[in-house]
Fold each of these.
Amino acid sequence: MTVDARPERLRARLSGHVRQPLLRNGYALVLNSGATAVLGMAFWVVAARRFSVEEVGNGSALVAALSLLATIAQLNLATVLARFLPTAAKRTGRLLAGCCVATVSAALVVGVVFLAGARWWAPSLPLESHDLHVDALFVVALVVWCLFVLQEGALSGLRQSDWVLAKNTVYGVLKLAALLVPAIAVSSYGVFLAWTVPVVPVLAAVGVVMVAHLVPAHVARTAHLAQPLEPRQVVQFASLDYLVALVGTGLTSALPLVVLEASGPAAAAYFTLAWSISYSLYLVSRSMATSLLVEGAGDTARLDEYSWRAIVHITWILAPLVAGTVLAAPVLMRMFGAEYAAEGSTVLRLLALSALPSAVVVVYSAVERVRKRMLRLVLVTVTVNATALALGWVLLRSHGLPGLGLVWLATQSVTAAILLGTTLRPVWLPHLDGRAASRLVAVTSGVLAAARRRRQRRLLAREYPHLAATLGLDPRWRVRRVLTTVGDVVVAEVGDATPEAVLKLALTNSGSEALLRSCRALDSLSADPRLDGWALLPRTLAIGRTSDGRSAVLERHVAGRDGRDVIASAPGDAPVLAVLDHVGSLHRRTGRPAVMDARLQRVWVDEPVAALECWLAQASSAGATGDLRERLRDGLRNRALTLGWTHGDLAPGNVVFDAAGRRVVALVDWEHARADGLTVVDTVHFLLTVRMLGEDRELGDVVCDLLRRPGHGGVLGDPTLVLLAWLHHVGGIVTKTGRYSPGGYWAARNVHPVLRRLRSGT
């Protein structure tokens, strides 16, 4: 008899999720959203049965006004608490108290100002500004609601998301029960009172628990994570994030008011209930993003990893919920009444579909908050929401509620597509299959390369007369072909009927330095008596400068075939062995034995790792290379190695074969050559790039495979040497050109996957 192991595997998987803070807190917040949605729907179902459509419309508008004013008055300090409490340690109490005082003060001011001018900016709201009791009730409700929202951010920042679930569940039950209280049921403000009165006891009870237990425990638990908390830093973050909240959350809160003003109370009631159902789907992504914000703030080096996991788990949860909502929209709306189903089903479907692209936007917002790139977040939020509001107002008046829903879906979808192709690209690209990713960007890369060559050809056309005179070029020569390059150097074949020379023109200062390093290396190699008869060096014909001081070099053209074509098309390993034989001769002639001591570790490990760390810091990934440094230092300590002349960038593209593809005739591009290089790095790097070529994969994929399955024959079976060659390849790229960003495609396929694998312990 066999036992089905699936339940056990499911339990093990769930147990693993629960042990991960990102998912544990995220799921708690998602459950909170689900409970809030169910109880919220029940609230509106009961309200729709006990009150008229006009009373529901007016009550929902008051609730929307309260939410909108709370967005303004609480200064978005809930997000500030979620961002800074994880590392506040002993400053936790001071940060909480300061946020509470600021929120209460702002709520009082905002409430009074709003009521004073309600007849101008919200004339349709059922507020009687001459009745001081009603006015006072509204202001008190605003203050309490602001503190209620702020408390959720505090609990999330304290990593106590289960308390958020408990708190909102109790509140949802209490506000549902409040609808049944006779005094509330007969009041013209019954919906609003039932929504706000239950907040008071819940807020007070949870506040006592926080002060007595949760805050002291958090301070003791996170003392080792403490980071400097400067008031100026917090204020700057809060002010910019506040703009994001005003534009983003403020718009969602204002949508029922827009519908009320444009289409009347009945349309506002239909839209509000459809919006409340669809907004519960939005809360799934916002809940997981809050957990992402908290965990990412405590470990920025793993932010991309956390972001990807958040997107995956949001999608798994949301996809079936969205599908179910789209299919069951008429049934869901019919719970409120037949007229709600007739008028609100279409807009509910559109709003529900928008929850999927909106999840991408929400994750993006959390990423930018962790990285403190608030100006960029403000720009994106303002652009997206201003577009949605303008188009929504137009289509609402011309096509009714479905027009508003269509605009909302379209703006969220376009924004998500743009963000996935730009800022969030490093989050998802590393998780694609290497070949799929290569195909995905092949067309774009080809177009960009062609455009770059056209720009370079125009540049050469302008500079060529001056360069021809400076370098003494034959008057009959012209630029025949511009070659594709990686660095900040234009490379072109020049000549008359056939290519006679290769012209290299620096585009930047780093390009000039690379050209001059190559020339110095070639001079030293040519003068080294140990290399007599070793004839694979290109010949420098002339060195000059452009009119603005950039370097230009003319080299003798080497006739032959590109090593990439030969190695890719050869049936066996003969071309690879030929290259290794020639390079091995260079290493043997100039090599000397050495032991990896502290000085060599500093040169070959510490300094390149520090340079990589500096480059990664541009994308707030500082601290991501600690495992790499330790792995290399441990693996290389006291190892016997050979130092000698090395090419430094030995790859098939830098090898020239004869026309038959049998004999190596030249090695080109020596800017990374070293007289005291580690010879084994040349060999490993060449074999890695050969494997990349043969398997049509990125270097990061190849390296990750070798780290995951060590022990292959030869030098590629040594993970330490593979990592060292990878490090110096990556370092060569980032020092050769500023074209590659740590947040771009190249880094996503070649840098971040290797660092993640090291952090995972493999």
Amino acid sequence: MTQLPPDIHPPPLPGLMLALVRAWHRQAQPWWRGVTTSWSWGLSPTAAQLAATDWWLHWASGAAGMQNWMNAATSSASAPGIPLLADATRATSDSRFAHPAWQQWPFNTMKEQYAQWSERLMAQARLEGMQPHHQQLMAFMTRQWIDMASPANWPWSNPEIGMKDVETLGMSRLKGMQLWLADLQALLRHTLSRRGDPEHAAPMSSPALPPLSHIVGRDVATTPGNVVMRNHLVELIQYAPSTPSVVSEPLLIVPSCIMKYYILDLSPHNSMVRYLRDQGFTVFMLSWRNPDEHDRELGMDDYLRQGLIDSMAAIRRLTGAARVHSLGYCLGGTFLAMAACLLAGVRREPDTRIKLDDLPDLASMTLLAAQTDFSEPGDLGVFIDPDQLHHLQHDMQQRGFLSGRQMAAAFQLLNAQDLIWARQTRRYLLGEEDKGMDLMSWNADATRLPARMHSEYLHELFLRNALAAGHARALGERLALIDIHCPMLVVGTEKDHVSPWKSVYKITLLTDTDTTFILASGGHNAGIVSEPGHPHRRHAWGHRPQGQPWLAPDHWLADATHCEGSWWPAMADWLRQHSDGEVAARVVAMRDTLAPAPGEYVKVRHAD
């Protein structure tokens, strides 16, 4: 290519053309980004197109590519001599096909054909030679199409819908139409409330905010307590004791800032906070502030200092305890592990910015569904690569935060079969309103993340895997997981799409301390909210003393002790084993009370 001499420059754009370009970026580009984001299921259009191109090139270059595709498209599950594949066999236990009518012709044939078609399409999504991340993206996008095409989603192929129409004389379909119109009206109210401005967020009282079936402080988050410390980022709640004596070490719980804290304080019967309090622990809980556009510059250092360090100092000041138990859930567990590394490094090389005399030691650390090695992040990895982050950063720079709706949509897509399509079938085609479950209400209470913190979190932990590699830094200190020496209890869940249990288990390879690992049944949320008495619960546990050889996850599972029931009693027993006796119950003094639990931060909702 011929280059221009250094003293010759391209002429500037004419004034009118420059104005047109700026108008495009200001008006049309947000619309175009919205369109492309919609058809790519929230993925970066560039990332989706790269994955599709990688797939197409490998498919087209394969000698059997066309033949395999035709076989997948035309083969019939009912054809003689073609056995049912694995997915077709599992279709009999698929909740979408639980109605007895699915066992009758022609619906049983449609169900089995759908299962075979699904399996073959999924096999075609991961072609040999493709980049692993592109394989994951194509499998994810293919799964979205497969879930959408399920015969259970359509009135002409779902026998339950027709039978319900007959039984109710068409009233179920009328009810479904009313629910659809109500949802459409709420969506229009939300759209109009934003006035076309992506930076505008409706206030708490806006009618665009859908009502929650469970009210915070009335139905959920009802364990008695008081806010005893507040800064710009967190409120610290101390719960009132229910026993005359308590374990000498207080327990600090660090929930994820991606979620409202009351996932661990739902209804009284399934509240982990209430359970631990009734077991004789002095429980403290962090309640993260739901950020707005003014918090765009809050970073991970702020979350560690204002969230964890300030809270630990407050506990030391309020209780006088020299040691504390700590428990972190999801991203809160990642932050807790980082804080443990930070404090270990500072104790080795004192830092004047952190006053160690004001902080208690960690008596133990419990991590619930929390990753520290992000090399295998599971299904969530489809949303994380350089193109995706560039796409996200553009949106966050405009607003100053990642919206709760964006996060909620991403988590819904990870389980679209249940959270999107099955719900729409029940609601719009069967006329069944959503059940008022506390967990579902909590799930609808979305939170935001500041632009800087979210960007640092994804770049440093997911893309660079800096914490596991020993390259992460916090408050100027290098973090090393091997510096953690307190006993650890690590909990993973079998069906976790967000933090796969084998990824959570990797901390046992990166540390050398007394460690107990528990694998619980259920998923990322339901596996953690697993109160005693909950039916069909089970868990496995295994203990590795410090200095013992490491076991690969499959070998650990083979050697583990398998138990029926909730794992919460095992956690309470483990915490007591690492405690130094009991003291008189700690009652919050009036002078230390800022507000009654659940505080104010947890009640802040934004309509985006």
Amino acid sequence: MKRFVYLMFIAFSMILFSCQNNRIQYPKTKKVDVTDNYFGVKVDDPYRWLEDDQSPEVAEWVKSENDLTNSYLEKIPFRDKIRDRITQIWNYTSMGTPFKEGGNYYFFRKDGLQNQSVLYTMKNLSDEPKVLLDPNTFSTDGTVALSTVSPSRDGKYFAYAISDGGSDWQKIKIINLSTGKELSEEIKWVKFSSIAWFKDGFYYSRYDEPTKGSELTNINQYQKIFYHKAGTDPVTDVLVFSNKQYPNRTYTAQTTDDEKYLLVYESESTYGNSLYIKNLTNNKIEFSKLTTSFDFEYNVIGNVNDDLYVLTNYKSPKYKLIKININSMDIGNWKDILPERKDVLNNCQLIGGKIIANYTVDAKSKVEVYNLNGDKIDEIALPTLGTVSGFSGSFNDPEAFYNFTSFTFPSVIYRYDANSNKSEEFFKPQLDFDFNNYETKQVFYTSKDGTIVPMFIVYKKGTKLNGKNPTLLYGYGGFNISMLPYFSTSRMFWLENGGVFALANIRGGGEYGENWYRSGTKLNKQNVFDDFISAAEYLIKEKYTSPDKLAIQGGSNGGLLIGAVINQRPDLFKVAIPQVGVMDMLRFHKFTIGWAWVNDYGSSEDSIQFVNLYHYSPLHNIKSNTRYPAILVTTADHDDRVVPAHSFKYIATMQEKNPRSQNPALIRIQTRAGHGAGMPTTIQIDEYTDIYAFIMYNMGITY
């Protein structure tokens, strides 16, 4: 008996020793003595120093964390095989929706593994396309990308904005289309801006030049609209619109197709706007303010003479299309063209003398055609359950193009004739993947408070519901953004290896209009987390998967979602991938454009909202000695939307409080990248390789 006990002790000691050897030795992150007082509640912030993106000490910390993560990922034996297969799937030609302006067609196309899409132009669709701009030549590593493009309506000029390293900051340049040469001027410190042409120039939005070293973190204030005439020094640009009384507001310019009216959208958050209108045919006429608050959204889709067609949710939570005559703009004279109905009116376009209305019905697209009086003429047939986007066309031309996509339906471009209501396939990509082996179903599950929530589930045909399927659940839940069916190249790798993909249409999004959105904001934010947790519970209950085979992923506001739910239910998930997340809910408004999110989240400067934020903030609710899922945080050093300090402080806290956890807590910090836009193909492939390798390895799956 004694010998048996002794052998058991030896065996246990060996197992314990093995587990300790497998535990990760995290870098020791220094702590500083910083405490904030919120309405009598003292909150420590020991990693405040990680907010300084210019500090050599922070750079050294980033290097040590990246070295640790890379050493972990390098030990995954099938990592290179995953990269090879994702690269193989990715190696196809894709195309953006063509658009026509000034007698020319334009479209983006990416051939194979090019880092950035190339912009082509042609006079006629039968012509051989010519390269207008190739962003792959902008930098050797593909990290300088095109963002906004805008040809002048007379076909003389082409303006474009570029982003360096993923930053939201942009530079605007101009091409003379008759000579093909670039003009000498360059407009800097542009951010969140349109390029709205009027005659030989355009309106744009910019900020004052930030102080050196603060470009990626300082709060963005006092945005202004200027007019730039092509061929002139930007120093002489004319200030058109500003408001010194309200530094935390943004301003975006739009001109009508006939260039008769200038529209200025004023916002103080990511939701709701005021609208100003100016008649450009008479310089003596000042701006007229159409609306007086930020309670509703107004989007001018076009005009017919002096009638503006406006998409709005004014007293219509699911949106409607109205007509406003410039000469009688009082609310009493507004006329409903497409009144509110049970489906959400996602967007509208004026094409070929008709109204093309894109509705969202249970988180998927339905497109209908109306005359200018709002009488239904027809409906555009769609190939399957999915999403229509990118309708491009003009009021005086019946020709248009649109994009259709779904989870297993890569983006196909259709050419549309408004006269006949006929669509024909214009471009279809060819991938090394058999889409016929997969199916998509939509289910409706019940959340904690009884709310019915839709969810899409995608998987290989013949998948058995035995609770053993590796499953990836994705969510967002914020900012009135609808998560509709969409195609992801990298996700095909997950599906072909037996993975199930689920997309939960949780509250906070716009899938069912303003009320659905509002029920996931501020003091209602817990609904978002409850909806997501209930989605996971549904997948487990219906035996799609189990907690040991369930991974969750979300980016930006979705990163916040992932951070919050693993604090609340760490037992429910095996792997968590929070990407570029908002993790510090007490200080998010102090960086770059973060102040604009207060409408969604609330602010720690309000006593009631502080209590709510503090209750779910991912950073402030990490528990000690808790078995969290395996965590891989991703962020980027040039992210000036959600600054990387959110992720830095979060992972430092997680590592400090759970140093002996058997599940890793790592961070992957991409250099020369930002919030996601414009990321080159090579970096995308590397990131998705590491994400899928991390998920599979921690689920015990061998590829």
Amino acid sequence: MPNLGYLLLVFLVGGVPMFLLGLYVAKRIGESKLINAERLAEKIVSEAEKEAETQRKAAVLEAKDEVYKARSAWEKQAQVERQTQIDLERKLSAREENLERKADLIAKKEKEITKRERDLSTRDRTLRAKDDRLTKLLEEENERLQRIACMTAEEAKKQLITNLEDQARHEGAQLIKSIRDKAKEEAEREARHIIAQAIQRCATDHVVESTVSVVSLPNEEMKGRIIGREGRNIRSFETATGVEVIIDDTPEAVALSGFDPVRREVARIALERLIADGRIHPARIEEIVDKTREEMNELIRQIGEETVLEVGVPGLHPDLVKLLGRLRYRTSYGQNVLQHSREVAYVAGMMAGELLLDVDVAKRAGLLHDLGKGLDHSVDGPHARIGAEVAARYGEAPIVLNAIAAHHEDVPYESTIAVLVAAADAISGARPGARRESLEAYIKRLQNLEEIASSFTGVQKAYAIQAGREVRIIVEPEDVNDHQAVELASDVAKRLTAELEYPGQIKVLVIRETRAIDYAK
């Protein structure tokens, strides 16, 4: 117990001061923390105030910037609207001025129309009065003429109609001559320039072929080998080729005669190969002919392709290309048809270029215009119509089909290209040396020209000159006047076109000459 009291006393004596000291220390620590907290709070508040001030200033500046931008945009919009309003006001002012001018013009025209109506009314009344007066004068004049001429009104009317017909014919001839002279002055120069330029740029050769091919022989003994025992070789050859072999007295040569030039060419090549090979018997003949025919078909295709590439006409159907190749072995009046087709394509294309037309279409139509001549006798009809039908079968354009069908005027022209193709065809066929004809046909054509020209009234003499390219007609000056001579030339040309067939064109020249002869004694 005494120890417990002692301990308690010690605790009270030492513990109370310590407790008080702890309280004091705790108080000081609390006051220090409070001061630090207050300082921190003051610092935070100060920084917050500074940040708030900065944000306020930034917000103010941003607001001022937005206000400035809005004000600038508004001012620009207002300026645009003001300018638009000014433009509208100007347009309205100009429109008002135009309306005022139009109104003034309308008012003036109304005045003029009113004045013209008054003038027309006055003129109408005047004309009616003159018409009545003229009618009366005509009646009086008719009565006077009937008394003087002892003619009735019907007789006088017939005489007047006759006189009017003569006068109209006379004036018509003058008009025809005037129109022709004017057309020649305006058109001949340009047409000749275009055609001459096209012809000069188209310098091509032409080939003259016949219906007979001649094959040279190394010796006379070869004729017997060609004939064979009892003629079996020659019969086999003619049967295989469809061509007649003519063996006559011509030294070291035989002739192959056939209407089909392709067959004749096959026969010529096959015979030359048989002669070079030396083995001539029916089996070998058939073998060589079949092989030559196959090679000829390939050659025809190659010729067609080369022609298409040379002329510059792409996209043709292979069958049309092959028909073009066959034209290499066709002739017309001695002129090679394929070469003629090339010339027509070149000339038509160049004339189309001069006239600013489609050159490719013109060349295509010119190359295909004689396509019908590539078919054999199994197809009936004129070659122009046949060629157009074949080209239509392979999808050619309508303008090309019309040019093919119309190049001999069998159908009407539907385009300028068709006219150019017909002109190019005439140019190629009518140029000197392009075609030839037999002497009998030539003489007959000249006689027909002179007979037709001489059959007209007033013709004194008619001569066919320039190889039938011109008919010169001399008329009786007492029976035919100058204007009737113009009519005569036109009538003769129309009749020649209707009754004769000829390549190119024929010039009709009418000559009226008056001679006065007297003698001095």
